Amino acid sequence: MNATPDPALxxxxxxxxxxxxxxxxxxxxxxxxxxxxxxxxxxxAAAGLMALGFSAAECMEVVAVAYFVLFVTMWFxxxxxxxxxxxxxxxxxxxxxPFGAQVPVVLRGFCAxxxxxxxxxxxxxxxxxxxxxxxxxxxxxxxxxxxxxxxRWGAMALVWFLHAWVMNHGVERIGNFELIAGPLVIVIGAxxxxxALTVGHGLGPLFSVPSRLHGWKFIAAFAGGVTGMxxxxxxxxxxxxxxxxxxRSERDQVVGxxxxxxxTALVFTPMAIxxxxxxxxxxxxxxxxxxxxLLALHHPVITVLGGxxxxxxxxxxxxxxxxxxxxxxxxxxAPRRLNFHRASFLVxxxxxxxxxxxxxxxxxSIFHVLDLISGLLGPVTGIMLxxxxxxxxxxxxxxxxxxxxxxxxxxxxxxxxxxxxxxVGGAVASAGIAIPALAWINGVSWxxxxxxxxxxxxxxxxxxxxxxxxxxxx
Length: 474
Description:
Blueprint: H1 26-37, H2 40-51, H3 56-84, H4 88-91, H5 93-96, H6 102-134, E1 144-145, E2 148-149, H7 150-167, H8 170-200, H9 215-239, H10 241-244, H11 250-283, H12 290-297, H13 300-333, H14 340-353, H15 356-359, H16 363-391, H17 416-429, H18 431-434, H19 445-460
Antiparallel strand pairs: 1-2
């Protein structure tokens, strides 16, 4: 920093990571993604695709397209973080202005905390199953408190403590945690797949189920399936700089994400289908929830070990995909009062306020809320890409990102062009929810939001001119 930053926009956690401290390699990025892709929600997503009528092979095709699109998007959006070492909540200021940036930052933070809460509750169910298996008396504490049994509250306390313990070690140690967690989850998943292949004497009945979709129905369902898969990670598509700022080179972040994202997803999806296929043989119906499967097997050792893996997988995805981004978003709102340590505990507290145990019985409601937010984040992704690659030509004046009167300041800290693009893009992407005749947009809402947001943003910038790279743009 060669200029005095505004204290309302800067603290040590928001400051650029100096090149000498950007020491994450491709292996760090790959293992982080391995840990994130292996979680309960992604595991159950295969069930959602098969419920739409896809065959197992077609599920793989949907996953391949969705994760390839995600990889390309994150590859480009991560570049600014790697080049300048700043997080998403700071980078977005070049498009929205230092105060206008709070709009997408708060939206992203809300979604991150919500996802953390839901994922943590999935781990809570696993811990509850583990303790109840080891200590049967645990389940006798069945009195209800705010709609949840007391023994489940005890399990939730343990899960929240584990998250706090991991976060208390700071960003540097989180990378080391993922080096162990990501590959370990893959090894356990491979063991479960081996068991399923033995039980099913092959790939199992789910792989013999033919597709029920043909013609235009297949095309519409395919587009919806791809958008749904992208929707699960659309929040992370905007804040990937929060991770890439610690990576030592562009090559490392590209190679790491290529191995950790599409490749891992294509390995994990058939694992989920094969394992579930074995449950059809054993129980006569498919069991897609891993915790329900562990309890159905009635084997204490398997329940304990399997539950521990679910908890590890949840910690792995929650720490880097939800808590870390939410911390930066909260710090961006109040940099004078919050640092990474304080913000992480605030995220844990706010996560409880979402009362995930009340939402879990209404899974459709969860995804309706998250799909709406994902549709709004499509324009944010488009605006970020258009701003950095087309308008800024990949050059930013880092000191000006921390000043309210710098070249990105707009009018009193707000840049109308980005806000207009965000509103228009979000409205178009969400139009199918309010107007039945436009319901087809719901199947491609993320893509529509991205394209419209980028186009409107660039259209509002037609009078802007490029200035010298070292100073940024007007």
